[in-house]
Specification:
Layout (H helix, E strand, L loop, with lengths): L2 H33 L9 H29 L4
Helix pairs in contact: 1-2
């Protein structure tokens, strides 16, 4: 792999990190909405929606973390 390709990989890794950070912000926003949900909505479909969204976003974050780790795995970046 030449230096140009390594530079491109480094930029791609950074882009993935930015996406991961954006997804984390979205997850935190959903968690805040859930935490501030009125008691009257607990146990409703709306609470389930937020819980499912948080789980889904956590899964995406985990997969993006794995992708970022892959960039570092072989030491090319």
């Amino acid at each position: 792999m030449n230096n140009k390709q390594r530079k491109q990989l480094k930029e791609l890794k950074q882009s993935v990190q930015y996406v991961r950070d954006d997804v984390e912000i979205m997850r935190d926003d959903e968690q805040e909405k859930l935490d501030n949900m009125p008691e009257s909505l607990l146990g409703t479909e709306k609470e389930d929606h937020y819980n499912n969204s948080i789980l889904w976003l956590n899964d995406i974050i985990e997969k993006l973390d794995d992708a970022i780790a892959e960039f570092d795995e072989e030491g090319w970046v």
